[in-house]
């Protein structure tokens, strides 16, 4: 778990963000070597933005689920996700 709980509370993709920064640092800021990390971060942001918009449309507050509930939300999504 990231060290800063408040940052994680406001940014559900903090872990993915930190991993992309770490990749950049490790690879001398060569963006080409970190494309997988960027894709993962962008997928994370897209997922949570959809969750936030859905909760806002349904009138559920807070729009972003609590940190403790996020794993179960992701797990539920993975169960219903269509396979390619």
Automatic annotation (TrEMBL):
Gene3D superfamilies tied to this protein: CytochromE C oxidase copper chaperone (1.10.287.1130)
Top-level lineage group: Eukaryota
Cell compartment(s), UniProt: Mitochondrion intermembrane space
Organism expressing this protein natively: Anopheles stephensi (Indo-Pakistan malaria mosquito)
GO annotations of cellular component type: mitochondrial intermembrane space
Residue ranges the record marks as coiled coil: none
A Pfam family the protein falls into: COX6B
Keyword Mitochondrion: yes
Claim: Disulfide bond is one of the keywords in the record: yes
BP GO terms, sorted: mitochondrial respiratory chain complex assembly
InterPro entries, alphabetized: COX23, COX6B-like, Cys_alpha_HP_mot_SF
Main location (coarse class): mitochondrion
Xref: PANTHER family: COILED-COIL-HELIX-COILED-COIL-HELIX DOMAIN-CONTAINING PROTEIN 7
Family statement: Belongs to the CHCHD7 family.
Keyword list, A-Z: Disulfide bond, Mitochondrion
Protein name in the entry: Coiled-coil-helix-coiled-coil-helix domain-containing protein 7
């Amino acid at each position: 778990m990231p060290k800063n709980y408040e940052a994680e509370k406001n940014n559900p993709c903090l872990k993915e963000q930190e991993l992309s920064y770490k990749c950049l640092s490790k690879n001398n800021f060569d963006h080409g070597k970190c494309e997988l990390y960027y894709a993962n971060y962008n997928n994370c942001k897209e997922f949570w933005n959809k969750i936030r918009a859905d909760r806002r449309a349904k009138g559920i507050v807070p729009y972003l689920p609590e940190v403790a509930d996020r794993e179960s939300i992701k797990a539920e999504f993975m169960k219903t996700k269509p396979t390619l």
